[in-house]
Amino acid sequence: MLRMAAEKDEKSLRITASDDLEVSTYLEIAKEKGGEQPISEKAAEVDREAVAIIDFGSQYSMLIARRVRECRVYCELVPHDAPWQRVASLKPRGFIFSGGPASVYDTGAPLAPAYVYETRLPILGICYGTQVLAHQLGGKVVQGTRREYGHAILHQGDVESPIFADLPPAMPVWMSHGDQIVEMPPGFASLGYTENSPIAVMGNAHGLIGLQFHPEVAHTPQGKDILKNFLYHICGCSGNWTTGSFIADSVDRIRNQVGNGRVICALSGGVDSAVTAALIHRAIGDQLTCIFVNNGLLRREEAERTLNTFQRNMRMNIIYIDASERFLRRLEGVIDPEVKRRQVGEEFIAVFERAASELGRVDFLAQGTLYPDVIESTTPESRASAKIKTHHNVGGLPTKMTFSLIEPLRYLFKDEVREVGLAMGLSEEMVWRQPFPGPGLAIRIIGEVTKEKLEILRSADWIVMNEIKNAKLYHELWQSFAVLTDTKSVGVMGDYRTYGYLVAVRAVTSEDAMTADWARLPYDLLARISNRIVNEVPGVNRVVYDISSKPPSTIEWE
Ligand code: XMP
Q1: Which long-range contacts (CB under 8 A, 24 or more apart) does 543-549 make?
Q2: Which of 168, 252, 289, 527 is deepest in the core (most CB within 10 A)?
Q3: Which residue, judged by its Cα, is nearest atom 12 of ligand 1?
Q4: Which residues line ligand 1 at a C-beta cut-off of 6 Å?
Q5: pLDDT tens for residues 478-537?
Q6: How many angstroms does the Cα of residue 522 sit away from the middle of ligand 1?
């Protein structure tokens, strides 16, 4: 018996993928102006080992993908209602069903499409995914008498299974479920149990396995070994997806896609556009032209360093445009942060378009879009937001020109992008650069942006950066920077009273910028930063440290 997936248009219960409202606002500009949408790249290579993760909306779905890739097997998350063609292009060697917030008996609960079972490939169910397996294949799932949440000890059953190869008879696992499987589908046996779940793991002889717990989270210490057993011993993968194979594949693919065409790429100085440009440059050399717009809102020496890396070291064709004055004029009298974003975004598009049109015929625009920005999710809202999330740091898509997009990092996570960057010879400094917002220092100056204030902020920011780097904390922090407030206060220097600016220092730790905690920087480091700023930066006589977390604050002050 096979119970079928819910109709496509029924409401799904997916938890929306992470997104950033302010970034989205900024990118709205590009959307409103109606840039090209990415052409779909062929995601599969003939000999690349891949699995498809059927996404039922778990908050951990992306984590499953990351764990699988850590096992050197390529994977993509696909919505539970994706058409067969979407999955077929991956040439999967198996499927993983993610967890999800629904209950299989809810009306409209997402179920797996029939083609998954028809392929007869191995399937690993996780939590809700296991209940989907049980439910669709003729077992019985009921609401548990109590919710099982948190640590549990999993004991292997009497039936041996490759899913437990080289693992101890008992191990800690992380549970988070309300429903319970009370009857397994025909042909399945229980492979493991916990105190509250007699069927914590089930499996059959054809490589269909269900785990009631979450192997992808850190609270299941042997979880990655379990995933690896599924991938290697049940799906028959060997782990051939490496940074080297990714680079080789991408270079081939870019060459095929571009042919004799010309590509432009907007460099921002950030890691994503840097790695994008490096990959494309390796594939097609001088057919690539990078455009680097200095908006006058960069940190000290940033423009020089970026130019140095790409022009001198990597010998790329770069058009450098110093548009500082234009941006500054556009920001005259602007105080509202959202208006600042909009002005910077629009000006960027105008400058970029002009530079690109002077190049004559251009066939492709390269962008450093990453996987978390494009992961297809199952709610209409997040589908819509996936579309507008394009290139954060350069400010939007050009509009009137007709070219296709090349997005070689479209299927990578940030840490994978860094690995690729290092493997391609980019410097540690470039690859580990902290995120920097597209509107740059404009949103770190409270109130109107002026040349004078930009100079003050650059000097203060330079000190923060140097001291953080000297203290070897730069990589540990998500971001660390100075903010120039619009508050002035009284101070005393020698025999004189001063009336100067208040600078705030902000340093945060974070995984993904959705939440952040203020960093507990050592007092002596804070003391050095403060001392240096008031002594070395004219016009500043007071420094404060921002001890607010996100939420309720944001990382940037504007
Ligand atoms: P917030 O301040 O919202 O920032 O906590 C979250 C992350 O996004 C960055 N950010 C931006 N990046 N354009 C960007 O490219 C923007 O307008 C923008 N606003 C915030 C911020 O630096 C942090 O990493």
Answers
A1: 543/502, 543/503, 543/504, 543/505, 544/502, 544/503, 544/504, 544/505, 545/504, 545/505, 545/518, 545/521, 546/483, 546/504, 546/505, 546/506, 546/518, 547/518, 548/518, 549/508, 549/515, 549/516, 549/517, 549/518
A2: 289
A3: 437
A4: 20, 22-23, 26, 341, 392-393, 435, 437-439, 479, 513, 550, 554-556
A5: 999 999 999 999 999 888 999 999 999 999 999 878 889 999 999 999 999 999 999 999
A6: 25
